[in-house]
Each structure stands twice: as structure tokens, then as C-alpha cells.
Amino acid sequence: MALLMQVSLFSEDFIGLSEFYRDIFDLTENEALRSDVFRGYMSGDCMIGFSAPAAYDMLSLTPRQPDSGDQTAFTFQMPSKEALDQTVHSAVARGATLQKAQFMTYYNWYMAVLRDPDGNAIRLACTTP
């Protein structure tokens, strides 16, 4: 079985975007990997990586085109409805956009959907509301 090790976002402002996630979700930086084109923050055993556009060439990848639709949505598990509500408030205050206000899913999770300052989709979920 393979385990998810890292998820990465590319951003012109990869430092600012990484600090948004660090501050909103209280993530710890993996400082050993810090470079002029990368920041990595741990969320449990999985790292969220933030790369400058120069990393596209380094990885032989093609940059995503504007207005090409969502391809990724992070889901962060929150410990309570109250913590989720507070995180929504904090994220919006830091530049996130609320896409769908808090609601109960058909599978009984309390959830909110936001976009980070770069427009990436974020889901906040409380699985035991």
C-alpha cells in the first residue's frame, strides 16, 4: 500500500500562500527542505508543498492554464463545529473566499468550502459534528 507523502501547489506568491496555510491551519514548516523555490509544511504525516513557477521546468511539467477549472481540493479535518466556524472566519480575514457556507453533507459531515488567496479549493470538514 502506498501512502500519500506530499501534495503541492504552484504559486507566483508561493511564500505568501504557504504562510496563509501555515497560519490558518497551524502547520509546522519542514525547514530542511526550504529553498528559493519551495516551502513545505507538515499536516500530520503528509506535507503540503508550495512551489514557485520555476519548479514547473525543474519537474518537466506544464503550468496550469487560467480558467481551466478545479483539479484539486484540499480537505482539512477539523476537531469540532466551533473550530471549523472559527477557521472559516480566520481564513476569510486572511484573504480566502467563502464558496459555500457551512452545511451538513448527505454523509453527515459538517463542511464549508473556501478558496485560498490563489483560488485553490479548500474543504473544511468536521466528521463528528
Secondary-structure content class = alpha/beta
- The tally of domains stands at 2
What does the largest sheet look like?
Answer: 4 strands, mixed
CATH class of the largest domain: Alpha Beta
- Could you give me the name of the CATH homologous superfamily of the largest domain? 2,3-Dihydroxybiphenyl 1,2-Dioxygenase, domain 1
Q: How many helices does DSSP assign?
A: 3
- The low-pLDDT segments are none
Reading side by side through the largest sheet, how are the strands ordered? 1-4-3-2
Cα distance, first to last residue? 30 Å
How would you state the average pLDDT, rounded? 93
Would you count the extended β strands for me? 8
What is the level-2 CATH architecture name of the largest domain?
Answer: Roll
Strand percentage lies at 25-35%
List keywords for this structure.
2,3-Dihydroxybiphenyl 1,2-Dioxygenase, domain 1, alpha/beta, 129 residues, 2 domains, 4-stranded mixed β-sheet
